[in-house]
Design brief:
mainly alpha, 430 residues, 16 helices, globular, single chain, 2 strands, two-stranded antiparallel ribbon
Length: 430
């Protein structure tokens, strides 16, 4: 089954909803046109048509999908379990901030879950290519819309990049903006686009992320590309294990001491910062403090404090008046709000599903499979979103990580029966 217009309709419907991130956002009103309402309506149609098999290429019943990895069923059950677990907590545990709690549950149940399951059920690698194109188009559109601001910053007419002003769009967070423009850069960097196009897009995206003062996305952009290049080299026997060990040692020698200091693992290993430093420290140090507050909370409440209740519960561990919202780490957030058991299960599932998919992808690279390049693109996106979820954002912001994990599973699939996988819409260099 070849990549068709319906596959692109599915891909762009999912990508648009991933960009909005919620069922309705009043900020997306341009010249009186309610874009959020239109996108949500289109997304609902895409989910219904995709689930029924009218668009896309849904796997037949019993289709295993991955020879060297998990089936789509291995993706569906854990995702449904997370949604059901969160819903039970909403019913049983009183919400301190009902609006935020409801938003988190609705976003996961009606945005993240349907999109991720719809992608995971696809048997056509062309969907991965189409979705990569769609995500890149969303990020590219954001980059284009911000070009006047970037030019103003370079000419000194605007103060983006300074402490008081961070580049963003539509009132959204600068970190989310940086993730999207770098998503476009990742897809283009791994595509067969001309070198001059790659340089222009990657350079502009990195500049925009710097003006947004988002260090994490910039760092993880480079790390993701590096890890993908390393997997490709290992799978194709371009580098020996000894070389890998030596390179890792050199890298740790260069980065390790600074990382240890940043994480407070030197003389301050067992010494918590005083709570009044939370607002006075840098963002990286503040995140460490938030982590320590979260660990104390988990110690006192191993079953969780309830979905969306982290901020209120955290006020018991810091001085009054400190602004707190979430722990800036997906797995820590799940442990603190929904219990250690679910957080451990989530981490193990992501490692298992992702690891099995990477194992299948490595085999495709060794065999020179024509869709191995798609797998590398999906892997880069997954790593990028996963790493970002470890230092920023909450459960709602992790929606792209779950979708990228589903993309990786589909991209690494070898059809056991039926028609061969479709030609890739985007083929990274394998």
């Amino acid at each position: 089954m070849n990549t068709t217009r319906t596959t692109y309709a599915l891909a762009f419907g999912v990508a648009a909803m991933m960009a909005v991130g919620r069922i309705y956002d009043a900020r997306l009103n341009v010249a009186g046109l309610d874009l959020s309402l239109l996108i949500s309506a289109a997304y609902a149609a895409v989910v219904l048509l995709g689930a029924s098999g009218v668009i896309g290429a849904v796997r037949p019943s019993g289709y295993a999908g991955l020879r060297a990895g998990p089936s789509s069923g291995g993706y569906t059950f854990p995702m449904v379990l997370i949604a059901a677990w969160a819903a039970v907590y909403v019913v049983l545990v009183p919400a301190y901030d009902a609006a935020y709690t409801d938003e988190k549950l609705v976003t996961f149940a009606l945005v993240t879950l349907p999109s991720a399951l719809l992608v995971a059920r696809q048997r056509d690698a062309g969907l991965v290519g189409a979705l990569a194109v769609a995500l890149a188009c969303v990020g590219g559109a954001m980059l284009l819309m911000s070009l006047p601001s970037i030019a103003g910053a370079l000419t000194g007419r605007m103060g983006y990049g300074r402490a008081a002003t961070r580049l963003s769009l539509f009132g959204g967070g600068p970190i989310v903006y940086a993730r999207w423009v770098l998503t476009a850069a990742l897809v283009v960097a791994l595509s067969r686009a001309p070198l001059v196009v790659k340089g222009a897009v990657v350079g502009a995206a990195l500049l925009a992320a710097v003006l947004a003062q988002s260090k994490g996305p910039v760092l993880f952009f480079g790390v993701s590309l590096g890890l993908v290049a390393l997997l490709r080299a290992l799978a194709q026997r371009r580098v020996s294990r000894a070389t890998l060990v030596v390179s890792g040692g050199v890298l740790f020698a260069l980065v390790g001491p600074r990382l240890i200091t940043a994480l407070g693992l030197g003389g301050r290993l067992l010494t918590l910062f005083s709570p009044d430093q939370l607002l006075a420290t840098t963002s990286s140090t503040a995140r460490i403090d938030l982590l320590r507050v979260s660990l104390e909370m988990i110690r006192d409440h191993p079953l969780g404090v309830g979905l969306g209740n982290w901020a209120t519960a955290a006020s018991r561990y810091v001085i009054s008046g400190t602004v707190l919202s979430y722990p800036h780490n997906l797995f820590v957030e799940v442990a603190a709000e929904l219990g250690v058991a679910l957080a451990v299960g989530l981490a193990l599932w992501v490692l298992w599903y992702g690891g099995k998919s990477v194992h299948g992808l490595a085999g495709m690279l060794r065999r020179g499979h024509p869709h191995a390049g798609l797998g590398l693109t999906a892997l880069a996106l997954f790593l990028f979103y996963l790493l970002n979820s470890l230092v920023s954002g909450d459960l709602s912001d992790a929606r792209l990580m779950f979708v990228a994990l589903a993309m990786l599973g589909v991209a690494a699939a070898d059809a056991r029966a039926g028609a061969p996988l479709a030609p890739a819409a985007v083929t990274a260099r394998a």
